[in-house]
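Standup notes
- DV: blocked on the single-chain target, sequence here:
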Amino acid sequence: MKIQVNRDVLADAVAWAARVLPGRPALPVLAGLLLDAADDLRISAFDYDVSARADIEAEVAEPGRVLIPGRLLAEITRSLPARPVEIVTSGAEAVLTCGSAEFGLLTMPDEDFPSMPAMPPSIGVVGGGVFATAVGQVAAAASRDDSLPMLTGVRVDIEGVRVTMAATDRYRIAARELLWHPERQDERRGVVVPARVLVEVARALRGGEVSIGIGDTVAGFESQGRTTTVRLMDEQFIDYSSRLTQQWPTYAELAVAPLVEAVKRVALVAERHTPVRLAFSQGQVLIQAGGGDIGRGAEVVEADLEGEELQIAFQPHFLLDGLAGVETERVRIHLDSPTRPALISNEGDDPDFRYMVMSLRLS
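- DV (later): unblocked, structure below
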């Protein structure tokens, strides 16, 4: 193999593919990036659950393929000068030259690299920015605890032109509805995708449109020459829709930015695992925390209240995660009682983002 490629393009593609490399690979070859040169250059990574492929332009003098330790290649390409990069295979080495810098990297047996799954047939496309925003809004509510795998995923429900994403860790539920362009107007699917993978996909595929494919066991995401596939999780999931659409007798509307800043300030005196307390009354909400060994804090924010006055308490970071998902200038907080969950949503009667969070016992 002998190729020449733009340094910035190569470094970006290598870094993108290397993000799926396993920390503790089941096989040594899974720590490698496969470079396959034909008409252009394809860079691939695979760990049996997640695959990544990036296609980039390259001048291919001699076609071929080579398997190179991925993390090392990512470190090297990121540090190279802004000059064209030449990669030539020579025996058991891949010689990488850029300006006056030269690296001879020992290759791995590419014949041992497993066959990668194909991208499933596309069932529709969605704008990359919309997709990334929706994933960010719901993935914060996914669990990081692998003891109950269902909670580490994002449920994706497709009904025609409408897509709903949802995640929960038992203490909160986040859901976001969005519109997309399905291949078929009567498309109906429901799958669960690992949240950590979906976050990485969304972060990398913000530009242009994202094509989504769903097979029997694999989902695929493709945009601008980059493709990620991921093994689907068990589709079992909670009935989140009924919980998010129940009725709350009271709600408050207030500006998001002042509320977020006030919660952050007051939470500075909240000891670990202690709540911030919100007392809603006509025209305002009083935010309080502390009172223990550290000290106490309080701040008042203007609020419009519809219903009875009420006090309620939350874990500060759970509350802030919900507020971070609100895209409108004002937030609506639906309330029932101090011991019942509250619902945070975009302003309006039919919000596309909903976030239900458990309350904590008032002390």
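- Follow-up: The CA atoms of residues 10 and 266 lie 46 Å apart.
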